[in-house]
Design a protein that fits this description.
The chain is of the alpha/beta class. The protein is 40% helix and 15% strand. The radius of gyration is 14 Å and the shape is globular.
Length: 123
């Protein structure tokens, strides 16, 4: 579990089996002021959800998309107002070269960054 200072007042639970990608994604979200908790499995995420409330739950789907869909349904059954989003596709926004040599990109002002800020602010 990782906790950072939250300037936006928003908390995110990021669930990703690939710990390296999960940490890169978490760092990127923290650059925008979100408090990010990480979980490397659905089981670990269940524990987080029982103990805390989150403005947004991000679910990685690469390894097992069916399990992520079932987990999302369970989250929404328990808390219909919980916002949940799937992380799909290669995370090109995190690196110049997708694959084994992931290089975190520095933050930049772009329409995508602005959209992310707006999405987090509305969560």
């Amino acid at each position: 579990m990782t906790l950072e200072t939250d300037s936006l007042g928003k908390t995110v639970l990021l669930v990703d089996r690939d710990q390296r990608l999960g940490e890169l994604r978490a760092r990127r979200l923290r650059l925008y002021g979100a408090t990010v908790y990480t979980a490397s499995s659905i089981e670990e995420a269940c524990v987080h959800l029982e103990m805390n409330s989150y403005d947004l739950v991000l679910l990685g789907t690469r390894e097992n998309p069916e399990a992520a869909i079932v987990f999302r349904r369970e989250i929404r059954r328990r808390n219909p107002k919980q916002r949940v989003a799937f992380l799909v596709g290669p995370p090109r926004y995190l690196s110049f070269t997708f694959g084994r040599n992931l290089i975190p990109m520095p933050p930049r002002s772009s329409s995508r960054a602005d959209k992310l800020k707006v999405h987090l602010a509305s969560a």
